[in-house]
């Protein structure tokens, strides 16, 4: 077996291990939680009047089967894995009997659309600004931009979101503040619908970009200022290589490598949704779904969202491990 | 005699500290020396960290501008080299070698690509002519183009990389090489091979070398002339043997005494003697 195949196999086992541990932990934690989904559903259903104790007992059994809560701990664990593989997390408790999977599938496109765009914009802007600020240290405009971004960095997303809400929803009401698209429009490829989609996404996306840009900026700037003092950059400077070429070929390219890993991780975590931001703007994505699940003790919904998120992050890491040798010769093997 | 490089009472002052606490650091105070064009030599600058030796190197390379005083290379004021064309012409004659060989090359490009672009930039050659130029330069350092081709800097040892750095410096056919601590990060066993390489370059290619080091042993071994720097001042200057055999200043004497004799038994004895002298006080 040549070097790359070995590397691939090793990485793949790592991937399997991460998924296995993550999913097992999720199962363990939800299993230890005091919320009993069966009793929750039963109490929900018997709320409206007295029911015959025998039919309640039957209902309990049926529900336990539905939620995969039958038998010993080990039985439950094994049947949980079976359901993960089949992609079936049972019915949601809070919107019984809709399957969790169809709730997730409904929320996923919203989250992926909003977050992928926000993550990519944040990454590009943050890294570009950070790299420029690290390379052109004395540029006043860049200093100013840096100070602004750094000032925004420690502000939590929910504060930023609220401020944006107040500005663009109340003081100068130009943008919609809630939901994913206008209620009375059917999802379609019409101009009106797409426009409404973009308008509704603007505030949450702005929140995410403003909250996230500082992290990229700071790390990129410090990466760049380390590389700028490297001898090969000094040599290029002495040799009269143009500063735009030094910036792109020597400095930015070297500094971007660790940032690519960061981007992949962020893209992987897209599947978990942006909990606070989505909740704040009532955006119909995974984050809001998760909050809903937690508030309403919706065991299977939380389980489903968390498991999806774990698998997505693990896949992202796996993929980045595969393409990393292409961008960094130092991890190229064999 | 025509002058290759001339420093005339060169000083460099850095402002350090924050916004409210502006203090000045005099890194170099009035350094004056000259290198002869017709007689290539190894000119050594010895000093501890912070003595200003690297600042001098950076000023000679035009990377820093002297606060006062002038540096002339073949009659040309180095700090006036503004245009790209003149920079290139200057760099073709003055080449640097750096301390850390692992930092000396862009880690994302192969070494031969790097050397080819050096050849293209300074000599304007491509293809077979570039191959020849590279192979010649690499042969001078005991390597060949075939050994380097397609390799990345992380695949080679520090000693090999430092040789390639020397080869890169040789490609344009320079008159002067400024080597800033070139062996301090190279394996002790390979150190001498690099130092000896400098001697060959001086004798065979007629390249003058400014060798910057804190290591008195190699300085003594290789230098024609030496200056000793201490906190920005040049405290001693002259023929290497004369200065190092018979230091005049207390600092240079202390520096010399700090060198351990190469014989381990003698080194141990010297250490113990020093320790007992200290405990006696």
From TrEMBL, chain A:
The chain crosses the membrane at residues 12-30, 110-136, 157-177, 197-218, 255-281, 301-324. It is found in: Cell membrane. Keywords: Cell membrane, Membrane, Transmembrane, Transmembrane helix, Transport. GO terms for biological process: transmembrane transport. The keyword Metal-binding does not apply. InterPro entries: MetI-like, MetI-like_sf. Residues 108-324 form the ABC transmembrane type-1 domain. Its main location: membrane. Belongs to the binding-protein-dependent transport system permease family. This is ABC transporter permease. It comes from Devosia geojensis.
TrEMBL record, chain B:
Keywords: ATP-binding, Nucleotide-binding. Coiled coil: none annotated. InterPro entries: AAA+_ATPase, ABC_transporter-like_ATP-bd, ABC_transporter-like_CS, P-loop_NTPase. Residues 5-256 form the ABC transporter domain. GO terms for molecular function: ATP binding; ATP hydrolysis activity. It comes from the Bacteria. Gene3D superfamilies: P-loop containing nucleotide triphosphate hydrolases. Belongs to the ABC transporter superfamily. This is ABC transporter ATP-binding protein. It comes from Devosia geojensis.
């Amino acid at each position: 077996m040549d070097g790359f195949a070995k590397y691939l196999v090793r990485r793949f086992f790592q991937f399997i291990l991460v998924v296995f541990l993550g999913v097992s932990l999720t199962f363990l934690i939800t299993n230890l939680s005091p919320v009993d989904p069966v009793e929750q559903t039963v109490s929900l259903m018997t709320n409206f009047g007295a029911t015959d104790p025998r039919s309640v007992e039957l209902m309990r059994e049926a529900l336990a089967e539905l939620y995969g809560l039958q038998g010993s701990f080990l039985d439950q664990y094994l049947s949980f894995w079976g359901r993960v593989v089949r992609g079936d997390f049972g019915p949601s408790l809070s919107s019984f009997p809709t399957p969790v999977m169809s709730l997730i599938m409904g929320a996923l496109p919203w989250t992926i659309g909003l977050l992928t765009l926000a993550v990519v914009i944040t990454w590009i802007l943050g890294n570009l600004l950070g790299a420029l600020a690290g390379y052109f240290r004395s540029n006043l405009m860049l200093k100013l931009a840096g100070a602004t971004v750094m000032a925004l960095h420690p502000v939590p997303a929910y504060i930023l979101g609220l401020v944006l809400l107040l500005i663009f929803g109340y003081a100068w009401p130009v943008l919609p503040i809630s939901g994913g698209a206008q209620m009375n429009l059917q999802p379609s490829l019409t101009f009106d619908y797409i426009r409404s989609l973009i308008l509704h996404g603007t505030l949450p996306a702005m929140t995410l970009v403003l909250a996230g840009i500082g992290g990229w900026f700071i790390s990129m700037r410090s990466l760049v200022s380390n590389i700028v003092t490297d001898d090969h950059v000094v040599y290029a400077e002495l040799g009269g290589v143009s500063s735009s070429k030094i910036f792109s070929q020597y400095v930015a390219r070297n500094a971007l490598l660790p940032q690519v890993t960061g981007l992949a991780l962020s893209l992987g975590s897209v599947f978990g949704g942006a909990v606070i931001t989505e909740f704040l703007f009532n955006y119909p994505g995974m984050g809001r779904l998760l909050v809903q699940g937690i508030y309403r003790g919706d065991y299977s919904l939380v389980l489903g969202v968390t498991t999806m998120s774990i698998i997505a992050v693990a896949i992202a890491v796996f993929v980045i491990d595969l393409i990393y040798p292409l961008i960094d010769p130092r991890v190229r093997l064999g | 005699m025509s002058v290759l490089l001339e420093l005339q009472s060169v000083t460099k002052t850095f402002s350090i500290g924050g916004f409210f606490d502006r203090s000045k650091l005099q890194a170099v105070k009035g350094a004056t020396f000259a290198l002869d064009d017709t007689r290539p030599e190894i000119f050594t600058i010895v000093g501890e960290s912070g003595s200003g030796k690297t600042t001098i190197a950076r000023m000679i390379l035009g990377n820093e501008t002297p606060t006062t005083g002038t540096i002339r290379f073949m009659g040309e004021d180095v700090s006036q080299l503004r245009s790209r064309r003149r920079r290139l012409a200057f760099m073709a004659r003055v080449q640097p070698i750096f301390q850390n060989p692992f930092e000396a090359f862009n880690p994302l490009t192969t070494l031969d690509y790097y050397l080819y672009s050096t050849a293209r930039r300074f000599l304007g050659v491509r293809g077979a002519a570039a191959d020849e130029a590279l192979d010649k330069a690499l042969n001078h350092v005991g390597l060949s183009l075939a050994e380097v081709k397609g390799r990345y800097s992380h695949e080679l040892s520090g000693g090999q990389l430092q040789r390639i750095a020397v080869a890169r410096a040789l490609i344009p056919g320079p008159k002067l090489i400024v080597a800033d601590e070139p062996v301090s990060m190279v394996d002790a066993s390979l150190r001498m091979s690099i130092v000896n390489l400098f001697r060959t370059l001086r004798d065979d290619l007629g390249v003058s070398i400014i060798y910057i080091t804190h290591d008195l042993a190699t300085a003594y071994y290789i230098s024609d002339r030496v200056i000793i720097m201490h906190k920005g001042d040049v405290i001693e200057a002259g023929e290497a043997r004369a200065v190092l055999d018979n230091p005049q200043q207390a600092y240079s004497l202390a520096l010399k005494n700090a060198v351990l004799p190469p014989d381990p038994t003698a080194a141990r004895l010297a250490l113990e003697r020093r320790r007992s002298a200290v405990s006696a006080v």
